[in-house]
Amino acid sequence: MADRRNGKGEPTRRTMLAGAFGAALAPVLSVPFAGLLMPTRAAAEAGAAMPMAREVPARLLPVPSTVSPELQAVVGAPLPAGWQDIPADADGWRSLQRLSGAGPHPILAEIRQKLRVDVTADKIGGIPVFISTPRDLPVANRNRLLLHLHGGGYVFFPGEIGAGEGMMMAGYGRFRVVSVDYRMAPDFPFPAGLDDATAVWKALTASNDPKRMAVFGTSAGGGLTLSLMLKANAAGLPLPAAIAPGSPWVDLAGKSDSLATNAFVDNVLVSETGWLGAAAELYAGGQPLDTPLISPIYGDFAGLPPAILTSGTRDLLLSDTIRAHRKLRRAGVEAALQVFEGESHAQFLTPFVPETEEAFTEIAAFFDRHLTV
Amino acid sequence: MADRRNGKGEPTRRTMLAGAFGAALAPVLSVPFAGLLMPTRAAAEAGAAMPMAREVPARLLPVPSTVSPELQAVVGAPLPAGWQDIPADADGWRSLQRLSGAGPHPILAEIRQKLRVDVTADKIGGIPVFISTPRDLPVANRNRLLLHLHGGGYVFFPGEIGAGEGMMMAGYGRFRVVSVDYRMAPDFPFPAGLDDATAVWKALTASNDPKRMAVFGTSAGGGLTLSLMLKANAAGLPLPAAIAPGSPWVDLAGKSDSLATNAFVDNVLVSETGWLGAAAELYAGGQPLDTPLISPIYGDFAGLPPAILTSGTRDLLLSDTIRAHRKLRRAGVEAALQVFEGESHAQFLTPFVPETEEAFTEIAAFFDRHLTV
């Protein structure tokens, strides 16, 4: 077995250890971390002698019975056709971008109707936005306002479709929500989207109390939420009372372990070798991918607002999410984490699934605890 | 491709949809959950027509650069030799159990010395225990006391080695800790271990204020922590002010999705087809595996104390952990979650690794917030 020998074909220290004690000891050597300490150390020492990549065999993932029947349909959906097709040039990206935003959008009408939300298009700070207002706005939320930044790899979902997550938050959380239709690659790479988000944030905080505000978004929108916080913090702009980055794309340099462990397990993004990695380069536009305002995991999180982060066990960006959570905690920021069983990237946004209402309800409760009335 | 056709070899609705719009649309269809809503719904409908198991190809997992060098040695360690060897009979289990507890344990001496902890053996409520006391006991912790339940699949780590996690908590958190050397399978299956834990809990709460107490443990010890809470809650016994189940083994019936997704990704437990699944049967001793006091995920979590749960992205029991977290939250219990990058089962217990100190520090801070001084 490959894991029993080092690169030179010699027995590893671990193999020798097992050999020395005989086959009967082998299962105990497999137990170490389950509460044992000494073998843990032995494993660390064996690893220190030769930390190495691990071969994982092909496997079949059943549809889990541990999620709602509605979500089982989503978890059990096949890989999206053509996930690995990357546009050859800017025109190819533009054409996909247009398709990703092209209406009509019956699902948006269904969300507005079922969750009782009204939506209007407007401009704030010169930037196009969609404003979602719940028909039953609770008294406590009359002076509160959320800023929403949509996902789509900084390329997809221009126009109203990008505001869908904002409409769901307005419906489930009964907050007023401003969704930013920010400029995107290929025509407007970094920092255009961040500039647009900043312009709206500045305009909104000029006439609203930031202590009554929160910022949220998923995937690229979660990364952009954190980038906006880094920029505002460094520039001395007001910060909101809370943020909610969902499956945030915080490391466009692709260092997260879940890009390997959840590759082909995630049935949304599938693998960074698909369009995601290409979109990172497109958005960065020649800037280093580990630039903190592009990949906020490389920034300074000290002083950021309380945060709630959301992911799924099959999410290709699970590591992006939990790395951001840990870095916030290490910086002394109050930060909550919720991870949903069996969900691939951003599947907590799937409309009309029980787990989605649960995710939004948690985020709304977090906002309610942190925002001044 | 298997994911493009249903069981009858017919094109799926998804394939037909992609076909109808042409190949150029395919990558957009892969984007849906990244903030988009309409294709999400389309995917759900396609899945509803045919939710199915997913084939995951063989892969190579690099050692992540996103963890400390000390932890890289642990993450990059090969699969433990003989992880899949299951004892043929009770004598085989007994022999492994003895080996798992056999000293000397130089790592325990190192923990006591470096973390400045004194340990004594004693009996409480008639049950053997190890009491860990930090040499510098903070004034705030003088009247506080933690109960520790060790891991090891309800079979392994009798004696002092099982108290190692308790010594680390005493050292990192500077709390007094009582570690229970409870009876285990094969000679003492369920409910012997739970009975022993209950006896110690009753004896301790007779002379200590439960509001100044917490209960914690990892793996089987995390499951046992929750089982003890279910039993105490149902019996009207006092409950502690907080609990900390780490990578808790809450579903011995094996329904968790991560048993599939992290099989052969986790380099500690490796796969439920190894000793873990056999230990579940051994511990249950003929009782149904979904008995709530055996698999607490099937119990009623209403009224349980505030909890902090810990896991790793490669943990075979990641889903056990996050399912318990979500169930606690749905029951209205305050519950925090922390997940560590690249860590397999219970690797947050690896001594003298920065991430371990981080994990213990979080748990200790959670206890400090919830326990009466």
UniProtKB/TrEMBL annotation, chains A, B:
Domain (Alpha/beta hydrolase fold-3) ranges: 146-347
Keywords, alphabetical: Hydrolase
Hydrolase keyword on record: yes
PROSITE patterns in the cross-refs: TAT (PS51318)
Domain of life: Bacteria
InterPro entries the record matches: AB_hydrolase_3 (IPR013094), AB_hydrolase_fold (IPR029058), GDXG_lipolytic_enzyme (IPR050300), TAT_signal (IPR006311)
Coiled coil: none
One Pfam assignment: Abhydrolase_3
Family classification: Belongs to the 'GDXG' lipolytic enzyme family.
Protein name in the entry: Acetyl esterase/lipase
Organism from which the protein derives: Kaistia dalseonensis
